[in-house]
Amino acid sequence: MQSHDSRLANGARRNNKSTSPTRDYREKITYLKFLISNAEAGIVIGKGGCTVSDFQSQSETLIQLSRNYEFFPGTSDRIVMVSGPINCVLKAVELILEKFLNETYGEGEEGEDEPSSKLALVVPHSCCGGIIGKGGSNIKSFKESSQAGIKISSQNDLYIGLSDRLVTVVGTISEQMRAVDLILQKLTENPYYTQSMNVPLSYAGYNVANSNGVGAKMFTNSYQNKYQHNKGPGVLQEGNSVTIGVADEYIGLVVGRGGKNLREISQISGALIKISNRDDFISGTTDRKVTITGSQRAIRVAEDMINRKVDIAFEQY
């Protein structure tokens, strides 16, 4: 199997054009969610949490896992969330994938072909358009550049009220990491993606009672103090109230003629929805603040309905 260094070297040769973001961009705080089996969760956590603590220390990231039997809807897989600067997140993901590879196949021999595996990323539905690109241009470019297979689950497969889709990346670790790098770059350009960092790992109403995940008990205090206030631009989240951003030009689609759409969303979801005044934007953007208040399930349903209204306009371009 290839070493970590040889994987990086091969990636550099395959992508001789410079597509790397600037250093400042690489230091942006972001996150990545993906699915793992219960058995893999045990590997990530390690005895007494030693493995996940080691990975957090090596990568300088925050690693959270949903609890036992808190699965992504429609699967028997748990959710992992890695958060921190982009480069650190990528390092943590690679450490985890390498751990799985070594546990499954052993260390392997230098030069031995590396086996392929599947990685399922959890991505907000509203952010998938950026990965796809106009006419599929972005996802095609990502596939060609990384040599990995990339497939996005159909929005028709979404559970009612579920606002996340799965982006499946298939390939060797080096191919997967290149694809994840490109996908994460694109996702982090979207202000809504970073706002979603604070959404709970569990899917209330689909699984057992809500939790912030076992990883919450494993973080070092120094990391929490360093990153706990990085909630993305203009995100407000208190109790059962969440504020998201909607581009000013799309607010009319959310409200509807005479407020018809807004009333419909509120009635179906059971959530209270409030939209900021015309000159009240999320800091650094021209996105209006849409505050959703209610149960977690009500918030998810309302958010999903709002995203779908905006997606209709987005797909027309």
Summarize the topology:
Layout: H1 4-14, H2 23-26, E1 29-36, H3 38-45, H4 50-59, E2 62-65, E3 78-85, H5 86-105, E4 117-124, H6 128-132, H7 137-146, E5 149-152, E6 164-171, H8 173-188, H9 191-195, H10 221-227, E7 237-238, E8 241-247, H11 251-255, H12 260-269, E9 272-275, E10 287-293, H13 296-315
Antiparallel strand pairs: 1-3, 1-4, 2-3, 4-6, 5-6, 7-8, 8-10, 9-10
Short description:
InterPro entries: KH_dom, KH_dom_type_1, KH_dom_type_1_sf. This protein has 317 residues and is of the alpha+beta class. The protein has helices spanning 4-14, 23-26, 38-45, 50-59, 86-105, 128-132, 137-146, 173-188, 191-195, 221-227, 251-255, 260-269, 296-315, and strands at 29-36, 62-65, 78-85, 117-124, 149-152, 164-171, 237-238, 241-247, 272-275, 287-293.
Quickly list its features:
317 residues, alpha+beta, six-stranded antiparallel sheet, four-stranded antiparallel sheet, 13 helices, 19% strand, globular, disordered N terminus
Verbal overview:
InterPro entries: KH_dom (IPR004087), KH_dom_type_1 (IPR004088), KH_dom_type_1_sf (IPR036612). It holds the Pfam family KH_1. Helices cover 41% and strands 19% of the residues. The longest helix has 20 residues. The radius of gyration is 20 Å and the shape is globular. By secondary structure, the protein is α+β, with helices and mostly antiparallel strands. Helix 5 packs antiparallel against helix 8. The strands form two sheets. Strands 2-3-1-4-6-5 form a six-stranded antiparallel beta sheet. It has a four-stranded antiparallel beta sheet with strand order 7-8-10-9. The chain is built from 13 helices and ten strands.
